[in-house]
Design brief:
A six-stranded mixed beta sheet has the order 6-7-8-3-9-10, with helices on both faces. It has a five-stranded antiparallel beta sheet with strand order 13-17-14-15-16, with no helix packed on it. The protein has a four-stranded antiparallel beta sheet with strand order 2-1-4-5, covered by helices on one side. It has about 350 residues and is of the alpha+beta class. It is globular, with a radius of gyration of 25 Å. It folds into two domains: about 240 residues, P-loop containing nucleotide triphosphate hydrolases (Rossmann fold); about 110 residues, Nucleic acid-binding proteins (OB fold (Dihydrolipoamide Acetyltransferase, E2P), Beta Barrel). It contains nine helices and 18 strands. Helix 4 packs across helix 5 and helix 5 packs parallel to helix 6. The structure holds adenosine-5'-triphosphate (ATP). Adenosine-5'-triphosphate binds next to strand 2 and helix 1. This is ABC transporter ATP-binding protein. Keywords: ATP-binding, Cell membrane, Ion transport, Iron, Iron transport, Membrane, Nucleotide-binding, Transport.
Amino acid sequence: MSSLTVTGVTRSFPSTAPGRAATRAVDDVTLHVPHGSFTTVLGPSGCGKTTLLRLVAGFLQPESGSIAFGDEVVAGDGVRPMPPQTRRVGYVPQEGALFPHLDVAANIAFGLPRAARAAGGGDRVAEMLDLVELPADFRDRRPDELSGGQQQRVALARSLAPQPALVLLDEPFSSLDAGLRGSTARAVRRALQATNTTAVLVTHDQNEALSLADQVAVMRAGRLVQSAPPSEVYLSPTDPAVAEFVGRAVVLPGTADAAHATCALGEVVLTEPTEGPVSLMIRPEQVHVDLSHTAGDKVIGVRGTVEEVSYYGHDCAVQVRLDEGTSVLARMSGVLHPAAGDRVHLRVTGLVRAYHPTEAL
Ligand SMILES: Nc1ncnc2c1ncn2[C@@H]1O[C@H](COP(=O)(O)OP(=O)(O)OP(=O)(O)O)[C@@H](O)[C@H]1O
């Protein structure tokens, strides 16, 4: 097993339409995935996520830049590219990865050395089933006798059986429904952690990217715009566009004065001191809603009227029109919440990220 280092990798595809410029699917991407860690690559459709994964797997070659597993360069830097079959990479695609005519045991044993395969995978199959939290007697089932989530666990077991240096997962949960998706993702995460396997998972699902990863790498139009731990990407996104991509955000104009800034929601405390006109990125759960009818004599905050409440059970989203005209979104517990038309007071809790106009896209 090893770390993965992608350095300045670029890969374009020629346009099929005459006169159209080539698509730069991956553009000067640099990314380090430490040994035994889990990185999610997050970005909208067409931003280059799968192309990046295919470059790492060896199905495509970079035009420039290099890819290394540990200290070993596997592509670029003038070395002869190492073929996919010798890179020791496990690849888990979206769905349909299992051989339908083989049972679970034969699917898992597929990548093992011939002798182990001939012996039916031996203990390795049992070990892998245990690792992905499937019952031992599933070994005789065929893929069409398994649910979608169980099939994806078998696909992971198959990729882990030969002890790969790196596991690449390309939207492996996208065909599963919401409940199964969460539980399968967590089981996969546990299996990777238990084997200390370096892994990269591609997704366009923000919740999946944030909840599973040690590191989130955000891509936009072929470029890597931020790679950082999930909480940093969420609370201190590199620009307002990343902020809005990884969650709901209230972006307000303001004026910074050292550690503070003023905006339509009053005075806020900044993550880093700065000066002058800024865009302020506030997460809806940072907007504290005081219900005026339950507040004491002295109410701190900015006045507004609730326009709309979306109730989700565990929490709710409250759209408030401030008296000065701006509409802002707050997220609060679903236990005690206001109704449309209620008068409320809002104030911002926690630190707020400020962007200068040049950083705002
Ligand atoms: N073989 C190819 N030939 C030509 N263009 C390609 C090829 N593969 C990908 N592209 C283009 O490169 C860009 C990046 O594609 P890629 O599949 O990497 O995006 P993605 O982020 O994985 O998208 P999705 O989330 O929809 O799978 C897109 O504009 C796509 O049309």
